[in-house]
């Protein structure tokens, strides 16, 4: 008898990331399962098949990714989508006309646009509040609130929302709590363990990790919610192709070591920026003065890879720095192995200009990659000093 007691239920994060959904191919022994680039499946007799009929409904490569992502979030059910926005849209199909959604006021711009400009036309009501204040959450829920939508850390100011308290208030109000866990990743934060009902991801970011694929996912442990989502995944059809699923599955195998490297670089950069004469404020939850530091320390296993900072000076100074870095590319998105810098008020958050949710013009957001930290620090120092 083998003394091994190892089983997926007890495996640790790194092992789950590499093995769940990636059993050797039974037909050939290939250690990496094939990309099932097939739209339809032969049936033995009408209605009798091996679990796959048509690839919008289910595809083996997608099933492998869905199982892996569910295990990483410690959830029972995973669903993969063609993008983060497709995952969010399908999640909102859980609601009925007349229902109200309360979301964080610094929600991802695409989420904000989807809620306000698309789904509000179909009888859903949306309102926004600074959910990093639990009293604000409490005050903003309504009798018809059916869903509370949280991101933590938030974008681009890295505010922290206490998930246990948010789950308590949401559930007391009769609402589900959904957490967009794109920034933290399940390596650093597992919202289902803190009381959330649904976890949503843009797998385009850290999970894919190489800026070469767009994808999304939803994970839940609630059987009825999972069934409802699976129905809409098939009915609306916003599904990823097999190759994109395979790319994300390949990406998550290195998620743990990548997040350690991203986080180490973010910490070093935060410390460097705090001491820099051209920098006014640094937003990083790992800093002791950050307003969400204590909650982040409790609910996360690390403070993450993202940070932002406000420059001494104007929006033009910030714009100049963004064009002068050489290792950091000036680009939207985040979470890839290569470092990115962006100017939120004229890029990711431009549509908020003039609104109460507008971000400061002197703010720059960094997504440090996993290059050598000294090259990143030298790059930033050069760009800041010459701007
Ligand atoms: C990028 C992003 C999304 C949208 O995902 P796509 O894959 O671009 O559709 C949603 N939420 C957050 C926090 C994101 O960063």
Description:
It is a single chain. This protein is α/β, with parallel strands linked by helices. Helix content is 35%, strand content 15%. The chain contains 13 helices and twelve strands. Strands 1-7-6-5-4-2-3 form a seven-stranded mixed sheet, with helices on both faces. The protein has a five-stranded mixed sheet with strand order 8-9-12-11-10. Strand 2, helix 4 and strand 3 form a beta-alpha-beta unit. Helix 2 packs parallel to helix 9. The longest helix has 20 residues. The radius of gyration is 21 Å and the shape is globular. The model has no long low-confidence stretch (mean pLDDT 95).
Ordered list of secondary-structure elements with their pairings:
Blueprint: H1 13-19, H2 60-72, E1 77-81, H3 84-92, E2 100-104, H4 109-118, E3 125-129, H5 134-140, E4 145-151, H6 163-172, E5 176-180, H7 185-188, E6 198-202, E7 216-220, H8 223-236, H9 242-252, H10 255-274, E8 279-283, H11 293-299, E9 307-311, H12 315-324, E10 329-330, E11 340-342, E12 363-367, H13 373-386
Parallel strand pairs: 2-3, 2-4, 4-5, 5-6, 10-11
Antiparallel strand pairs: 1-7, 6-7, 8-9, 9-12, 11-12
The structure holds pyridoxal-5'-phosphate (PLP).
């Amino acid at each position: 008898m083998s003394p091994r007691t190892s089983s997926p239920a007890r495996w640790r994060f790194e092992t789950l990331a590499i093995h769940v959904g990636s059993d050797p191919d039974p037909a050939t022994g290939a250690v990496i399962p094939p990309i099932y680039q097939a739209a339809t499946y032969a049936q033995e007799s009408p209605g009798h098949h091996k679990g796959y009929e048509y690839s919008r409904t289910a595809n083996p490569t997608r099933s492998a990714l869905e199982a892996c992502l569910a295990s990483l979030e410690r959830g029972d059910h995973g669903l993969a989508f063609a993008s983060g926005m497709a995952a969010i849209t399908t999640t909102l199909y859980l609601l009925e006309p007349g229902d109200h959604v309360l979301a964080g006021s610094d929600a991802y711009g695409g989420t904000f646009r989807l809620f306000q400009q698309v789904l509000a036309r179909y009888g859903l009501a949306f309102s926004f509040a600074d959910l990093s204040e639990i009293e604000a959450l409490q005050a903003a829920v309504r009798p018809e609130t059916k869903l509370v939508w949280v991101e933590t850390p938030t974008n681009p100011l890295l505010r922290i929302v206490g998930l246990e308290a948010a789950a308590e208030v949401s559930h007391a109000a009769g609402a589900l709590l959904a957490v967009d866990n794109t920034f933290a990743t399940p390596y650093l934060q597992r919202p289902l363990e803190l009381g959330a009902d649904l976890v949503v991801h843009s797998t385009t970011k850290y999970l894919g990790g190489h800026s070469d694929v767009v994808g999304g996912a939803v994970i839940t442990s609630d059987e009825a919610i999972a069934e409802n989502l699976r129905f809409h995944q098939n009915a609306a059809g916003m599904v990823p192709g097999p190759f994109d699923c395979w790319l994300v599955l390949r990406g998550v195998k290195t998620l743990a070591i990548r997040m350690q490297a991203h986080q180490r670089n973010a910490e070093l950069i935060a410390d460097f920026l705090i001491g820099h004469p051209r920098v006014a404020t640094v937003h990083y939850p790992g800093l002791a003065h950050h307003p969400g530091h204590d909650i982040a320390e409790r609910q996360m296993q690390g403070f993450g890879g993202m940070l932002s900072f406000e420059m001494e000076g104007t929006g033009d100074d910030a714009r100049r720095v963004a064009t002068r870095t050489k290792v950091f590319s000036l680009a939207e998105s985040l979470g890839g192995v290569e470092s990115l810098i962006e100017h939120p008020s004229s890029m990711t958050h431009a549509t908020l200009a003039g609104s109460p949710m507008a971000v400061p013009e002197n703010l720059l957001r960094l997504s440090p990659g996993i290059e050598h930290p000294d090259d990143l620090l030298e790059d930033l120092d050069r760009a800041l000093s010459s701007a």
